[in-house]
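Batch queue: ligand-bound targets. Current item pairs a single chain with zinc ion. No template structures supplied; prediction is de novo from sequence plus SMILES. Inputs echoed for audit trail.
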Amino acid sequence: MKMQLRKGNRDLIKEINRSLVIEQVRSIGQISRTDLAKKTGLGLSTITNIVEGLIKERIIYEVGSGFSNGGRRPVFLKFNEEAGAVIGVKVEPKKVIFALTDLDIKIILKSEIPLDPEVSNEQLLKLIIREIEALKAHLRTEQHLYGIGIAISGLVDRSKNTLKYSPILNWENYDFSPLESYFKIPVFVDNDANVFTLAHMWSGKWKEYNHFIGVTFGVGTGAGIVVNKELYRGSFGGSGEFGHIVIQREGTLCYCGQRGCLEMYASDDYLIQETKNLVQLGLSEKFKSSESITIQDIYVAAQQGDKNVQQLLVKQGENLGIGLKSIVNLLNPEAIIIGGEGTKGMPHVGIGIKKEIAFNFFSKHEQKLNVHMSDLGDDVWLVGACALVLDDKFKAPIYQ
Ligand SMILES: [Zn+2]
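Prediction returned. Tokens below.
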């Protein structure tokens, strides 16, 4: 996917300045025209013009300060998060989750429909359309739906809004582009790890980072890479396949065709298989039989104090840490934000991760790498799916 810079002309300058103003009002919350001019470096007359247009579009509105010291009462500008709405969708193996949010990604409504894993592309689209129509009925007449964002696991071709292949869902070439022609609004599809990472660029405690890595693990393993406040997507959108960094030469054969992929040493399947091995060797205190051990059983055993199972979770963390260290050395991020179902194995997994990444190429530098757990809870995927829409709507319009 070639990103081409737009030609510089008056229209582009206007659009950039407009997005600068929206960004400032959004992030500061309440600001006067004078302060907006100072913050953006734009002239007061330019600010006045842009603000006038944005007030007409209802993207921002004026509020009085409530005080006056004799002179003119200062007027502040606020971002109107209720001017529009966004729908986020998360497709999982057994269900599809939906959220209707405002432009600040505050969830207004959430819903969920069960999913037959054998569902066809056509049936899936019908289900999604039916549910989105139901959510749309809750929009106020003046509330414009800006777009639909869809989070899904697997390899996504963003230019065609198609899921090329998902080992977790066992689907190939599921096309979501008919949603765009049906609803006549922009639709964006992206993989779970990118969506998770984007959520943290738009919401939560760590929005200020310019360079960070979002990492998710559980059934699969993935990463999203943020460089200069922008999600790095690679040549066709496939970046961040963190689970397929090779950490073991001549290691376990992965479904991708390589041997020794990190995912083979860090996913739920790895934990289940290794726990079964422990049980067969008589080394687990909690499990008596290696039959039908689930990932939830493993977390419970660790919480109940099964030392060998706890050690296994630490080992999983170390394996993740080895992979993370490679990304850190390559990209020199400010932070790593960790999430996904696998975090149920904390604190043991975290011990392993921290142990491995404590020493990296940059350890001697005074600026230390920050490691955080996601603060967005189970809604992180829906928040990120909605962020797909806003990221396109409000980003600096410098590319064609
Ligand atoms: Zn692989």
